[in-house]
Please model this.
Amino acid sequence: MGLPGGEMVDEGIRDLSMGRKTIPALLISIAFPRLRRQGVALPKMAFPRSDVELYRLLEKESGDDLAHARYTAHLRRISSFADALDRLQGTGS
Model:
């Protein structure tokens, strides 16, 4: 569909289906309820506490100094995808 972050969403769905706790999979878990409402084909389950898990993973990868900035950037990216999907479906404001 060419939506922003679409490749990350595809990767996250694939990783989540395989039970891998990756950044994309945790982002899908965070956005799981919204994406499901939007009709995105998702695995049956999301990771619990995915927001905390994502932050910890980012902290481990890049340290305290960059974790917060990376965390918010990733959240904006998944939100941009969901917003673009809303617009495409004609449900956005």
Helices lie at 6-17, 23-37, 50-89. The radius of gyration is 13 Å. The chain has a mean pLDDT of 94. The chain has one domain: 6-89.
